[in-house]
Amino acid sequence: MSTVYIPALAAFGGSAFGAVSTIVSGWFSRRRRLRERHHARSFTKRERLYRSFIEEASRLYADALVSDKAEIPQLVNLYTLVGRMRILSSDEVVQAAELTGRLIIETYLSPNRSFVDLPQFMEEMDPLREFGEICRCELLNLPIR
Asked: Which backbone phi and psi does 114 adopt, to 5 degrees?
């Protein structure tokens, strides 16, 4: 092999290495961006689902406190949200949501409450506290894939 080819091969090798490293670097950064975007979408999707559940459950619980007549379509909507949680969320979140749903049904079956009864059931007033805390823990500990 002639000494003329050595600098040419070195230049070609350097160019090839530079091109490959640029391609690999671009691939890794794109992959990281896609992962971060997926994580953000997953977080947002769960956050919206939990917010919808909390709003619906709060409304139903307030209605259950003063009414004996259950709103079956709204209860179905609540359990639809629980079903979506079964797909997206951890078992702890699903169990807390089911517990909240049972509490709402039990509240519909219990005697109506009035404002005078408020001090007696102040501890029961926030049936979504445990659900909210479990959701917050899940969202904070959502794994980045």
From this structure: -120, 175
Tell me the pTM.
0.72
Q: List C-alpha distances in Å: 108 to 64, 72, 145.
A: 5, 11, 42
Structure tokens at 119: 């001090």
d(CA 41, CA 48): 10
For every residue of 9-22, DSSP letters joined together read: HHHHHHHHHHHHHH
Q: pLDDT per residue over 14-45, tens digit each? A: 887 887 788 888 888 888 888 888 877 888 89
Other CB atoms within 10 A of residue 39 CB:
14
Which tokens belong to 93?
A: 């979140």
Which 8-state DSSP code applies to residue 130?
A: H
